Amino acid sequence: MKKVLLFILCFCATITVSWAEDLPAFPGAEGFGRYVTGGRGGVVYHVTNLNDSGEGSLRWAIGQKEPRTIVFDVSGTIFLKSSLGISNGNVTIAGQTAPGDGICIAGYPFTINANNVILRFLRFRLGNENVAYHEGDGLGGMDRANIMVDHCSISWSIDECCSVYGNENMTVQWCIISQSLRNSGHSKGNHGYGGNWGGKGSSYHHNLLCHHESRTPRLGPRPSTQEEELLDMRNNVIYNWAGNGCYGGEGMDVNIYNNYYKPGPATRKKGGAVQYRIAAINIRTLDYCTDDNGKPNGWYPMLHHWGKFYVDGNVIDGNEEVTRDNWTKGIYAQIDKNGNDGTFTSVTKDTMRLDAPLDFYATTTHTAQVAYEKVLQYAGASLSRDAIDSIMVYDTRNNKASFTGGGGNLPGIINSQEDCVYNGTSAWPELKSETAPLDSDRDGMPDEWERENGLDPNDPEDRNKTNEEGYTMLEVYMNSLVADIMDGCTSDGELLGKIKDSANDPTPTDYEISQISYMSGDSKTWSFSDGYTITNAKNKGYAGGKNNTIKYSAGVPFTVTLPEGKRVTAVKIEGYANDDAASSYLSQLGDKKYTQSDGYTFQSRVPSIVMSTYNIPLEEPLTGSFVFSFGGAQQCAILTLTTENINTGGVVDVKIKAKDPHRLVDVYNVAGVVVLKQIRYSEAFTVLPQGFYIIDGEKVIIN
């Protein structure tokens, strides 16, 4: 990738910025899920019909195992006959490729049960027609890693609309999350919940949440991530909430920044402090963290732990006082002083409040007022907005509640999709399809586009050729379909946060070899994210154990191959013996052999699974590849490798403030002659040869 030295000319000051950023999932992918790869470099599957199952269906394409991109040759609503989950990761589902009005998934829940997933320009409108068979979310996914949800529309849930949380490195961006169902038939009674948000590095930005009874959102930790929760919530628009609105955050680290809260008819009718609530922050109490018999449960590690919160720049529409001071009434006044085991004190009040934001990955950030306009213009499956999204935007802009369910619901809160009556119809909008463009080699790129871009319409392999930025040609095509939308999303803002420069970052990082990082494999080679592999000569296939562990047969040498430029400086092993009676032990790590007497032993799974943890000292770093093995019984283990880059000569920016990278600029040479006119700022760096240029008033060296 090209290195860019940028000299910003501003009066007499000169600022030098150098980076070689890892490739984002797509232009406009931001937040903690910025670097998800999805199906990049894999095969292509075409969805050719709207059937629930069978060849050519979405379920059939999702069920494939290899890294893959799923494109659509048809538009319309897919009415599922059972729940649909992504169990095999490394997949991109590109809703923007559908010819016509796009795709909607309805009837049963859709869940993300795998790692490394990209979902773009899709609708998930559940409905309660099948409430007797499920009580699901519109879009769900927990305890996974590397997830990007972009420009999706999610509504009519029986439980929460969007509960994609408890994941690591995840973004939900530019989505419309609307109209959760209140009295839909859920066995626990009334719901109407927007969603649970949280995770170990999770971003939720530029989303519209509207017409929910509560949980807008629920800041919700998961047991798997509760001790490492880091959530960045910025530039969201929240309209017409009732009930509790936004609340939770037990023990979490959270940025709540530049969001736009607009009370609606339901909010005003509800009345009270919830009308100016930014978030009602809680903790895990003793009752919550213990079972009925008084024994600690899975939440006990966070007992009485107050989180850390950076809250600033949020607007409460119509309330200048809380807009000016987010904390006094928007946060502090919302805390239940009697409901936190007496732990809310003046000290707590000070320590929970941060003066600077927590770390987050690069995200274009607008003022709350600009974000309000941007979200209403671009959020949701906006390549072709359907009637429901259009009404949601209309309601938000005009302070309306177009639909209300019966049974005493507050304005705008519905019980069923049938409460939505519009244009002489109700419930799911008609999505018209068009004829898909000819794709002779079935590589996901139309013949005409391939010819225009110098590709062969009869060569399916050219889909994985890459441009100078590193995107495959298939990605270039898919990104081009929504380039104007993404440009509009990121204009008029500042790109703030961290970027990832794996090749040059000198900071040691921990890499976990577990079910979370596993991608694919056969009986000889298991592939993990970020280029790690494990091989064995005994044809032992991959299998998972409890607690995200991987099973390793006793007496079999396993070889870990590291990505180029990495070395391991420390190893931690957690696990148990997968046997009812026998124990297991570490027998080799690198060149060093061990016996059971060395003490690295793991207990039998009976009477209960107890995870033993050992930090194994290394005499010198492990490079290239290394061998490990276990003796005794079969071992179930998680390996955590502390790694560092061998070459650390680069510079990594920890915070970027930049103009819109997609703005149109002129490029001059040192003689002042225009060499490129009205080209996107970001594109200029990919097409210019080495040299010295002036771009938008900035001196730039490309080398």
UniProtKB/TrEMBL annotation:
Disordered, as annotated region? 431-466
Q: Does the keyword Chloroplast apply?
A: no
Please name the GO terms that the record assigns under molecular function: lyase activity; metal ion binding
Q: What SUPFAM superfamilies is this protein classified in?
A: Pectin lyase-like
The yes or no answer to whether the keyword Lyase is present is yes
UniProt keywords (A-Z) are: Glycoprotein, Lyase, Metal-binding, Signal
List the signal peptide residues. Answer: 1-20
Coiled-coil annotation: which residues? none
- What InterPro entries does the database record attribute to this sequence? Pectin_lyas_fold (IPR012334), Pectin_lyase_fold/virulence (IPR011050), Polysaccharide_Lyase_1 (IPR052063)
Against PANTHER family, the record matches this protein to:
PECTATE LYASE C-RELATED
- What's the name of the protein? Pectate lyase
